[in-house]
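(Fold this chain)
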Amino acid sequence: MKNKNTLKVRFLGGVGEIGKNITVLEYQKDIIIIDAGLTFPSDDMPGVDLVIPDFTYLIQNRERIKGLFLTHGHEDHIGAVPFLLKKINVPVYATKLTLSLLDNKLREVGVNKAKLIAVEAKSTVKVGAFSVEFINVNHSIAGAVAFAIQTPVGTVFHSGDFKVDLTPIGGEIIDLARLTEIGKKGVLLMLCESTNVERSGYSMSESVVTDNLDRLFLENKSRRIIIATFASNVYRLQQILNIAYKNKRKVALSGRSMLNVIQSAEKVKELVIPKDTLIDIEKIKNVPDKELVVVSTGSQGEPMSALTRMASGESSQVSIGSNDTIIISASPIPGNEKSIYQVINNLYRKGAEVVYESLEKIHASGHACGEELKIMHSLIRPRFFIPIHGEYRHLKKHTLLARQMGLKNGASLICEIGDGVELTQKTMRRIEKVPAGSSLVDGLAVGEAPSVVRDRKYISEEGIIVAVCCISAESGALALEPYIEDRGAGLDGNQINELKQIIIKTLSGYNVKRVGNKTEVIRLIRKNIRDSVYKKLKKNPMVLPIITEV
């Protein structure tokens, strides 16, 4: 007989990948969701702005969902929430800064009726069969929490993103005492982040970054300083503001996301802006270099970011010169290295000095390294363990670490997107997969459109040729010289003229008006153009013949 008193955990994102974090817990008719994040498109996704989880399973079960719980305010944990709330009206529980950042995103996409409920660390929320306790952890943003979730089957511990920082620059240290208590009472399942499992030792404290930034300001007394960092790293922004104020420098913000985060954090008192420190970016030309700091987005070399536009000379606000010192205070996200070093090269070409992580300790990761993960395992001591937040290699290494910490063989699973796991008080087993994967966001439009992405990628590599043919409404013969528009195929003038002659020759034997729906003529034009271009250029562009009457 099937046991109905089981807990089910489903992974709709954040396993086997970096970003797009979302986990679902189910007990009988009740469901809660933990996080709903996004990731950014790879180079083989032209025209796509964002990648979010596939919400099909949640939409199918919308009546069962009791709440969405957010661990913190980074994009990979809250970026998909607006798109989820457009489909499902569900209460959202999070700390105040997380909700403030989310509120901005909701307004941008026109979600105006969301039920946002602020919860402080050390508080518990009961929804349906679940009681969710918010536990303070350290991360690179204020308001980060882990969850201890009481269920009828047992306690589930979800670490969120965390580190063990004994000298944080803001807030309290991670609540190790409460974590110890939770572990002693017994934890059925631990879901723990794996981002930095490959790094041994401990993550660097933010206080070390403060000391090094302080020194860099002193070493560049007479120069203009430009700092690129993650807009969402509120603690880093606070460090910069404080050091700038101490050194009697004004701070200008470049990048819309930077302005949004500053405003959101100040509103909920998670950021204190020293008096008369901020100035409008449009007014920096009136400020001497030695009295100015520009804080910019673009630490990952994003194509449209403020720093990238500065480096390429396309910024209307900031022109890079030989008296600039640029500090890139962030670690490269895997896959972004090429873009970042291209930006650094361009900054050097403009005469600037550039300081980045491989030269100075100017960024502290918000994610636990090996020894910190061991601390978490030793405190929580779960019966079962599933690693989350990482590519497959991270998840594999984290299971090995868990075994080193005493986890029994067979007590861990490595899951991938769509996987489900069922737990009783004594067992854990895989169950059926559910619809899952990625949805692509183009502007504010969402959809699974792999064919559209394939077309865009194809056009970006092979090009597109548009052939416009005007025929006489009376005779059906070609009335004007064909028009050829080339985008990316690389045709020269002679080749364009050759294609025009090919079209004229193709149409010479046809009265187009007598050819049903013109399908045959269009097919011939497309074939003859593609054959000619391939012969000359070894390319297969997309060819769009257009026939119109005049």
Residues 263 and 531 are 57 Å apart (CA to CA). The mean pLDDT is 89. The two ends are 75 Å apart (CA to CA).
